[in-house]
Sequence to fold (682 residues):
Amino acid sequence: MKRKLSIIDIAKHLNISTTTVSFILNGRAKEKRISDELVERVLKFVEEVGYKPNVLARSLRTGKSNIIGLLVESIANPFFANIARLIENNAYKNGYKIIYSSTENDTEKTKQILSIFRERHVDGYIIAPPEGIEEEVTSLIKSGSPVVLFDRFLENVPGVDFVGVNSVQSIYTGMKHLVLEGYKNIGFVTLDSLQSQMQDRLHGYEQATAEFKLTEHVKEVSYNQSSENIVRQIVSFLKRKRDLDAIVFATNYLGISGLRAIKELGLKIPEDIGVLVFDDNELFELYTPSITSIAQPIEKISDQVISLLLKRLDQQEIDPQNERIILDTELTVRDSSSGRK
Amino acid sequence: MKRKLSIIDIAKHLNISTTTVSFILNGRAKEKRISDELVERVLKFVEEVGYKPNVLARSLRTGKSNIIGLLVESIANPFFANIARLIENNAYKNGYKIIYSSTENDTEKTKQILSIFRERHVDGYIIAPPEGIEEEVTSLIKSGSPVVLFDRFLENVPGVDFVGVNSVQSIYTGMKHLVLEGYKNIGFVTLDSLQSQMQDRLHGYEQATAEFKLTEHVKEVSYNQSSENIVRQIVSFLKRKRDLDAIVFATNYLGISGLRAIKELGLKIPEDIGVLVFDDNELFELYTPSITSIAQPIEKISDQVISLLLKRLDQQEIDPQNERIILDTELTVRDSSSGRK
DNA sequence: CTGAAAGCGCTAACAC
DNA sequence: GTGTTAGCGCTTTCAG
Fold:
């Protein structure tokens, strides 16, 4: 194949210096007061021969890569997949490329990935963090790379931005809805996780049970189980708690496993048991009966995340201020919570 | 933060030359007959100070990046999301990093992404190609970058590998199943697309209708519609074809839209209409009634794709042979195709 | 066995 | 306004 031309080739061909070419290509012609005529001549030639600067060389020289690292829990989770797609589109428009990875909520794996990203001179990070990476994130920020967290927060990381939803309030509102529909004995299935968003969802449940004078029935499913295992755990929870008349699932996939469990036990929704799930899913709309859920504003989250990061990327100095953006969710009432008939 | 150390720093500190350090770090000590004692000393020091080679500089010098570019139709599609995750894990184990992007089946966007990947000196490509990028792929291969296609094929691209499923046979088998269940008037909803896999699925349908002496009823939904639009088109198709007793959907999301359409029309599955969908989905198992589907072997596809690419990456010269791996699908019979009662 | 040194392609300080 | 040139950090040829 035709060898890649370099900036030298094009400078030589035009009998000018590489500096001039470089300035023109980087849009600093005006600033350097290079004649319009020359600028045009260079641009035209570059276009003609299809010259593309070598990004690697540029990055090596400038220390910038125009790449944003995105770390989600799992790209196979629709919530994260959709966020990823929206962020990617948006980043593209701003000249940034996204490179993503799934953490699988594995602290060690996450640390590794961060170190790889760092090696590649990623300019900024968007992370749905697993537990235990406060130190790494702090060090990233200290060394000048902006980091925006989303979905869950990390405490005590100066200068980190965050975009999330008001989990406590969301679950509380959902619980209130169930109570108003006449449910009196509501269980809560969550993950055995210390991540902030999971804790918040639990607090929302506790707040509601306290306020409405309900008994608490919490099941904490342990992390990173196979989905069969999760179903089994929920089945046994439901068997133990025969008097539950409704159940709230703290995540998308807990909800799906919950539906399996309920089906397995032959319980009727919403007569035998009311169902509410945090985080919406196409399945919930189409399921029979349709499942009431708390939908997160995916577009808004993506927009906020990327614009926050771009803002940080723009400003030179490190700003130790944290920015926290908390968005509202939407309770989508469907058939699964319409009370005991 | 502490400045990154370079290979020079470590050479200086140990009073040896950078060459030696480089050789040792790249595992060429034996070959260069460097004393074990020295090797160990260097390795120990490197470990101690946590030195990491600058990947950018290395790439600039060697022209290799250890990055594989992965192009899927949409990362929000569960089929692709799962494949992406599996491929990523596997690539990691082999020292490669994946960078992915969604094409949205947009030829122009895809060309752009390819050019960006190329700029970044991506070592190899895994692509679920949209139509019309034969030229770009050919040029990629000619310039020495291996390309593995999956899900759909591109004709006339020498040296490109492919991993896919036997779509014709799969749909044919599905049709046969419907016929055996007593369905006689089977419609086929597909995409208005020339992509090879879509054409194959259509051929499977045509082959079956011919063999079983059925009338053809094909609806080609046009590309890149909103899901509301797709539902509308399917609704009007079903209204026009009142005498259909079963329907086959050629993709995952057509199937989901189809279920919406059927619900909207108040038709009962499987009594009023039998349903079969190509490509499985969690939804299909949980839907009431559960939906019969043709499942693709996601793990096998991912394994084959990555091992094919790694093989190519290993061999130096360009091999103009194509390798085509065709895998079997699995017909998962559920309630939606159990015949008219 | 080890070291000197020539780049990979680009940017930008500095000189004119 | 434009050219010279010193690196960015690494690999690798060639000479001892």
About this structure: Chain B is about 45% helix and 15% strand. Residues 62-164+298-326 of chain B form a domain with the Rossmann fold fold (CATH 3.40.50.2300). The interface with chain A takes residues 1, 52, 54-57, 59-60, 65, 74-76, 78, 81-82, 84-85, 88, 97-102, 115-116, 119-121, 139, 142-144, 256, 259-260, 263, 282-283, 286-288 of chain B (CB under 8 Å).
